[in-house]
Amino acid sequence: MLVDLDKDPHYQAWKDKDDGTAVIAGDKSLEPYADGLRYRYGRYKEMKAAIEKAEGGLNKFSQGYKLMGFNKTPDGILYQEWAPGAKEVFVFGDFNHWNRSSHKLSRDDFGRWSITIPNNPDGSSPIAHRTKVKVCVITHGGMSLDRNPAWGSYFVQNPESFLYDMMYWDPDQSEKYEWKNIEHVKRPDACRIYEVHIGMGTADPKIGTFREFAENVLPRVKKMGYTTIQIMAIMEHSYYASFGYHVTNFFGASSRFGTPEDLKYMVDTAHGLGIHVLLDIVHSHSSSNSMDGLNEFDGTDHCYFHEGAAGRHSLWDSRLFNYGQWEVLRFLLSNLRWWIDEYHFDGFRFDGVTSMLYKHHGIATAFSGGLSEYFGYHVDIEACVYLMLANEMLHTLYPDVMLTIGEDVSGMPTLCRPVPEGGLGFDYRLAMSIPDKFIELLEKYKDENWDMGNITFTLTNRRWNESTISYAESHDQAMVGDKTIAFWLMDAEMYTNMSTHQFPSPVIERGIALHKMLRLLAFGLGGEGYLTFFGNEFGHPEWIDFPREGNGWSYHHARRRWDLAYNEELRYKFLDKWENMCHTLEELYPFCRKASHQWVVLSDNADKIIAFERGDRLLFVFNLHPTQSYSDYRIGTFWPGKYKLVLDSDGGNVDGQGRVHWDIVHHSTPQPWNNRPNYLQLYIPARTCQVYRCFQLDSEPETEPPRNIADEPSPFTS
């Protein structure tokens, strides 16, 4: 039942609050936690006010890269570093013939060290482009520690030590990249995300490059219909198999894939195609490496991180930031600005947000949804304040561009409400329970035992006023020890029975049918945006496994088999086609967007039918029964009028049996059914899904019926 908010006393009582409790206007259940919301918002306001007073505001404060690290001046290069626990600090490298004592830094009252390295007598830069630079920290105990500059922007692995060393990056005009697309791509209304990894982006058993990705993968992204790419593992990480989540150098673009200029070329190419570009940002933890990472940077346990056990993640073997430290806030907020200002990224997917939000980091915690789990002393308020500052800064400075996604498994309420209301400010959260549910079904239950009510509940179990990115599988589900949905469904038969020159075996027929259905279920009902890990859309086989000692340092499972999707003699092409058709449907008749209409019409466990209304007069119908087809099956619907089939998983063009006629115009009957005012009678084959569109209401003039998506010209051009 719809509520008139203008007449709702609860909404009116809370909507204009300016103390962090305005979020209660949209959720009455939060009212008992008003004090917690006020406290959190108060701490945010205090920190923001302090930054404005001491630093001139978030805009200036978040441009710390212009203050810290290496910055050119008329007199030379100013180098500044924060190392409050150090006794002495020196900078050395190729520029001074590796003399560890000739260039000593001076300390200020805040633990910041600085030195101006004068220009050469001929006026040239004292540090040459692509030369190594290190910092030597002398501890109060007399130890001499070699470290990488924390704000360095380019790091290359030393073939002798296997550690990563900073290379000073200052290309001349002949090497410096010139942007062709100066403006960012505006935040898309339809958030259809392609999650990618640059190194895996090639079919060859090697590490792919930024330029190869730009030339070979980005045109495919555009052609398939994705609006956004989310790029993993950009921030420098010494261990390739960490998937980029054990970051060693936060301002460095990973040199495995090319130079900083190559990354700019790739982002620029994406923008030229109209693709919105997100960076998978890791601010939840840091690699525990000391010699080429941030750990024990100044010789103490607590420079950038909490001291002792509070500063260590027991499951990830990594360090945890102290978000209450002034210079840590400068470092992290400036890191966000760096990736936007230097590389033109359009937004961020924040990794590991659950670990940030709670002092227990989500370890051994089963979140049941009780609101007491989200408020109290176990919540890390300093981390919450950092996220509020970050989101408010990003959305204020880049209002038409910025998009932020929080990876939170806990279900923290207000995560995706605006900061002025008292929320944490994200645009979307990830629907992390959906892929887990699909894997559970495939691993533990026979098809006939799938519970339609449980599936529907999982797909719709989200906060009504907080937007969600849905997905059937991401990189997480395909990591070694698990496998892709396609491999769960078809396993070893994918090696022998995917040829189009033979009839599909029962395993392949079932696998292709369910692969199409599960993906559209997540796309259609699971959220206000959609994501897939690249390659999985065409049923990528097997799993992901990066080169390591245990697999003989093989790249066999750390690549994408694009050849499978493009091979006309293999059935992967049908799954690839289906994915493109789903995106075409969403583009022509929007359904997976914010404020999109959604109503579950039917979830019948006996018949294995799920039906729901979504978006622009679309009726989705799924028959998950393994053997039973239905004739003249009644499905309730809201819209009275004429309907036409626009998407069919049983079409011959996507390896179906072609049992549903595409040209029939269906007329609704004005009689209540399934708690809807009208109904249709449809033929629904077993293990198929169809989408019908009400193209003409009874009250509207005669309208030409739409074509099936298979017959529509693609709205996406490469």
Automatic annotation (TrEMBL):
Pathway(s) the chain acts in: Glycan biosynthesis
EC number: 2.4.1.18
Coiled-coil residues: none
Name under which the protein is recorded: 1,4-alpha-glucan branching enzyme
Active site residues of this protein: D351, E407
Annotated ranges, domain Glycosyl hydrolase family 13 catalytic: 161-571
Lineage of the organism: Eukaryota, Rhodophyta, Bangiophyceae, Porphyridiales, Porphyridiaceae
GO molecular function, one term: 1,4-alpha-glucan branching enzyme activity
UniProt record similarity statement: Belongs to the glycosyl hydrolase 13 family. GlgB subfamily.
Superkingdom, taxonomy of origin: Eukaryota
Catalytic reaction annotation: Transfers a segment of a (1->4)-alpha-D-glucan chain to a primary hydroxy group in a similar glucan chain
GO biological process, one term: glycogen biosynthetic process
Keyword list, A-Z: Glycosyltransferase, Transferase
Annotated Gene Ontology cellular component terms: cytoplasm
